Amino acid sequence: MRYKFIIGTLMKNIVLIGFMGVGKGSVAREVLKHSEYIAIDTDDLIESMENRKIKTIFEKEGEGYFRKLEKKVAKWLENSVQNTLISTGGGFYKQKNLKKIGIIVLLDSPFDAIIERIKKHPNAEKKLKKRPLLSDLEKAKELYNERRPEYLKLADIVIDVTDKPAFECAKELLKKVKKYA
Ligand code: S3P
Predict the structure, then answer these.
(1) What would you measure as the largest C-alpha separation in the chain, in angstroms?
(2) How many H-runs (helices) and E-runs (strands) does the chain carry?
């Protein structure tokens, strides 16, 4: 079944939040197949603004610099973007204006399930390498434990994505988001 949302009838952005590797990109791509949304990704925006990879930005400039770029993107999203599905990096939830950008949808899953999901992927090594904050899994778990309660506080909608194909998560998302249209 195709869930259609015609541009112009839905004013609010959808902001996908959640931990690294939870599947925000995959779910976003499925939402696009079944709706009229246009999608953007905050990490992609930052990479094109800087013309270099996130990994390089972290290595050369440090995390603080990256977070400043996220802040710039967050302001632009609030002021200039509508009717858009916005996938965010796992730390983007810290932006103070997040709730002003759109409906917040959390993709939720336990830490171990997220790591399993990444490891099962044919490009697992690449997926781990491109994320500086996943290089040490013990630290990443601490980060997950710190962040999860914050993600839950911010979320208007929570989707448990554990062991669910992306198209099912997308279907659930579009159904739940309808209430906010
Ligand atoms: C980060 C998550 C990454 C990326 C950067 C920092 C984080 O995005 O923004 O490496 O702080 O959790 P993904 O969640 O898409 O991996």
Answers:
(1) 46
(2) 9, 5
Instruction: Dump pLDDT digits (tens) for 87-135.
Output: 999 999 999 999 999 999 999 999 999 999 999 999 988 888 899 999 9
Which ligand 1 atom is nearest residue 87's CA?
15
Percent of the chain topping pLDDT 70: 93
Cα 179 to middle of ligand 1, angstroms: 29
For the CA atoms of 135, 139, 141, 147, what is the dihedral angle to 10 degrees?
A: -110
175 — phi, psi (to 5°)? -65, -45
The protein residue whose alpha carbon is closest to atom 1 in ligand 1 is 90
φ, ψ (nearest 5 deg) of residue 158: -115, 130
How many angstroms is it from 178 CA to the middle of ligand 1? 28
Q: Which residues line ligand 1 (CB under 6 A)?
A: 20, 24, 43, 54, 89-91, 131-133
* Best mutation site among 130, 133, 142 for ligand 1 pocket (most ligand atoms within 8 Å of CB): 133
Q: Establish how many alpha carbons lie within 13 A of residue 24's alpha carbon, considering only the half-sphere containing its beta carbon.
A: 28
> Rounded distance, CA 7 to CA 94, Å?
29
